Amino acid sequence: MTTIDANADLLERQREIVSRKTLKPLTKRRDLPGLIYFFGLLGCIGLTGFIVYLAEFNGWWIWPAMLLHGIMLSHLFAPLHETSHGTAFKTRWLNESVLWFCGIVTIWTPLYFRYDHAGHHTYAQVPGKDPEFVLPTPRTVLGYFYYVSAMHLWVKNGGWLFRHALGYMTPFNRQFVPEDQLPKIYLEARIMLAIYAGLAAFTIYTGSLVVLTYWLIPTIIGVPVARMLRVADHTGCVEESDLRNYARTVTTDCITRFLCWNMSYHCEHHLAPSVPFHNLKGLHNKVGDQLNTVDKGYIGVQWEVLTRHMNGFWRKRPIDPVAREASGSVVQD
Amino acid sequence: MENDWVFAINVDEIDDEDVEPIEIEGKEIAIYRNNGQFYASVDKCTHGNAFLSDGVVVGDVIECPLHQGRFCIKTGKALSAPVSVPIKTFEVKVDDGKVFLKFGQTK
Known about the structure:
The structure holds 2 protein chains of 2 kinds. Chain A is mostly helical. Chain A has helices at about 5-15, 20-25, 30-55, 60-75, 75-85, 90-105, 110-125, 140-150, 150-165, 170-175, 180-205, 210-235, 255-260, 265-270, 280-285, 295-310, 320-325, and strands at about 250, 295. Chain A is globular and about 60 Å long. Chain B has a single domain (about 5-105), classed as Rieske [2Fe-2S] iron-sulphur domain (Rieske Iron-sulfur Protein). Chain B has no helices and 10 strands. In chain B, a hairpin with a 5-residue loop joins strand 7 and strand 8. Classes of the chains: A mainly alpha, B mainly beta. The interface between A and B is medium-sized, with 30 and 23 residues.
């Protein structure tokens, strides 16, 4: 199936689930909800940063404090994702400014992410085509922990950063980017590397631990929590282009919904990515009964993934085609 | 036909800051309304082939429903990723509550 066919198929399936008339009012853009969520998250980051400051004088407390701070910092991925869709704010410069800020803090190249993520929406859960496929079958427990530890993330994002800064993009990544846009993507990587080099030079020259204590170390140790939320989005769902079942909507508490900018309504987000995060609950209320909604929370989903959707502990077992067919492409132990 | 004004849609059939799909001689056209002004373009996104008439109008911009690429509805210019190829736009006039476009003529 070509990209054009895949997109046409996607829109046809969307119309089977939700009408244009229902969708239209939900797609309206506003600035206020995005400002509340963004500055709310920044407030949380400021608060946890202050806790890190206090913990600096209390020995080992610095580590749990940095973990908490890192969890908050890693949730800047949520506004990065929403602004990459352009749905966070009605005002465009606000959208692009927040996209860049979050991209720099979370170490995601924002423009390339926009292309990569468009590819994910076209080919979600299609093996070999989805650029953001999280743990495709056959998957292992070790692979799960590798993903959740975010080691894969640093390899991937670091790869984007350095390769693009050197003016090279892998053939797989290149399929999502028009040729004439490559210079912009290479430039953004160079700008980001220059910023990080500046921070490194500042740290070495002054001997200050500010960058390490308040940003880099917390980000590295805190990002696994955000990775667990990503596992819940698709892992263990059908591995085919099925809008109703290739993602998972997770019922969760209001704090988690706030931190992830309502991406717990992930089926609804894939059904209609034009709907801003603040209207996903409204879309869920209209069509949620037709989608794959699970009510066991994020921890329950991790348990489900680990106990039902693994194909071995560290060695991948071959997939039994009969079992794959019977379970909707997921082999259950 | 190329230089004739062709009836497209009644003014009151489109809300302000919205878009409606029409079909003329088997060709799919999107008609936009913003601040009382009307615009027209082909109805297909140049990136993913989605119908722009399923998208969102924000001021002078139409945003594709699939990947949120943005085009200027006045000029057809591609404004932001993932789109980079412009859409074809058509000349439009309003007469007696009806919107007409010069179907064969791009702006």
